[in-house]
Amino acid sequence: MTCCDARADGLRLVIGRAGSFQAVIYASPRVLCGLQCASIEDRNHFEALVPRIYELGGALPRDMKDFHDISGCPPAYLPKDLSDVRKILQVLVEAERCAVRAYTHICNLTAGKDHRTYDLALSILHEEIEHESWFSEFLGEGPSGHFLRRGETSPFVSKFLK
Ligand SMILES: [Fe+2]
User: Fold this and answer.
1) Whole-model pTM above 0.90?
2) Measured in whole angstroms, how far is the alpha carbon of residue 88 from the centre of its chain?
3) How far apart are CA 124 and CA 41, in angstroms?
4) 30 C-alpha vs ligand 1 centroid, how far in Å?
5) What pLDDT was estimated at residue 161?
C-alpha cells in the first residue's frame, strides 16, 4: 500500500469508523499524509510482530484489557477536540518517542543473541524514528532530515510481510 491514497481526501482524514461513529481530522495534506502513512506502517509493525511472537512460543493476550495493560507505551488518546491538530501531533510524537525507546530496548536485548528478532526490531525502529521525525517537524521542532514516504509503505518492515 502507498501512503496518502486511501482515506485522505484533500484536507480531511477519516481516522476511525465503527458503526455510526466516525472521527475526522482536518489538517493540511502534508500532515494528513504523515498521519496516514505512520498509521499504516504502525499496523504493519503489528502484523510483522505477531508471527514472531508465536514462533518464539508466545501468544497475544486473549483479553484486550490485558493486552492494553502489558503494553510498553501508554495509550495515545486523541484530544476530544479533533480540530486541534497541534494537540493531536503532540500525542502522536510522544507515542512515537515511546516506540523508539521500546524498539531500541528490544534491539539491545537481542543484538548478537536472537538475530531474527533483532532484524525485525531494527527494521521497525528505522520506521518509528522516521514517524517521530515527521511529527516533530510538523510541530516546528526543526527540520527532521527525513522526507515523508513516497511510494510504498514500510520500506524496512515490508520484507517481513511477504
Ligand atoms: Fe510509528
Assistant:
1) no
2) 14
3) 9
4) 17
5) 94
Burial class (CB in 10 A: 0-12, 13-18, 19+), 100: middle
Q: 26 alpha carbon to ligand 1 midpoint, in Å?
A: 20
**141: CA distance to ligand 1 center in Å?**
18
Ligand 1: centre distance to CA 107 (Å): 16
pLDDT of 80: 87
**Cβ 36 vs Cβ 4: under 8 Å:** yes
Kindly give the distance from the C-alpha atom of residue 96 to the centroid of ligand 1, in angstroms, as a whole number.
Answer: 5
Question: What's residue 148's pLDDT?
Answer: 86
Higher pLDDT, 82 or 2: 82
Cell matching residue 119: 532484524
Domains and CATH numbers, the chain: 12-160 (1.20.1260.10)
**Average per-residue pLDDT in the chain?**
87
How far, CA to CA in Å, does 61 sit from each of 3, 22, 75, 109? 30, 27, 17, 22
Ligand 1 centroid–CA 131 distance in Å is: 5
The Å distance, Cα 99 to ligand 1 centre, comes to: 7
Is it the case that residue 6 has pLDDT exceeding 50? no
